[in-house]
Amino acid sequence: MAIRGVLLCFSALLAGCSAGSGAAEPSSGLPVVEGCFVTGANTVNVNLELATSTQERRKGLMGRKSLGADSGMLFQYQALQSAHYGFWMYQTLLPLDIAYLSNDGEIRSIQQMKPCTSTNGAECPSYPAGVEFVSAVEMNAGFYEANGISTGNYLRLGQQNCQGR
Fold first, then answer.
1. Domain count within the chain
2. Per the UniProt record, which residue ranges are transmembrane (predicted)?
């Protein structure tokens, strides 16, 4: 029951962020939320496309030829996902890094994912989280390392939660 309450709070925070952030719509048609990764040393601002439905999460960043340096995609789930659950790179043209997050936005795991050039999705590897998670953030390959972001750091959503850090 406590997990459900925390998930509801995180969902409410996320909904408030997308509604009041003045975020623009990317060419994908998905809403964009402003956020930041908070490390012990700094705050890294990002703009994240929000994928909440099964269809949006399934498509993800497939077919994209580029992604802005501070842009990515936030995949949000209604329930806690198993450590065995993962992402795959079928029809994804960009190398990506993915951070798997707990219900309070803590980075629990980071994986590097390579594009799969096979036309057969069954030949594309998946990248299991290795930890339970409720959301995940895909960014360009090398983003997390280049910005000193690692497990134990946090994603905060909404400009108001990133100012003054």
1. 1
2. none
Q: Contact, 50 vs 18, CB < 8 A?
A: yes
Instruction: Write down the pTM of the prediction.
Output: 0.81
AA identity, residue 38? V
Nearest partner of 103 among 155, 165, 161, judged by Cα: 155
The domain in which residue 147 lies consists of: 2-161
Residue 19 CA: distances (Å) to CA of 90, 106, 116: 32, 23, 35
Torsion on CA atoms 26, 30, 31, 35, rounded to nearest 10: -80
Which tokens go with 13? Answer: 């925070």
Q: CA 147, CA 153: separation in Å to the nearest integer?
A: 12
Pairwise CA distance, residues 139 & 63, whole Å: 15
- CATH number of the domain at 96, please: 2.60.120.1140
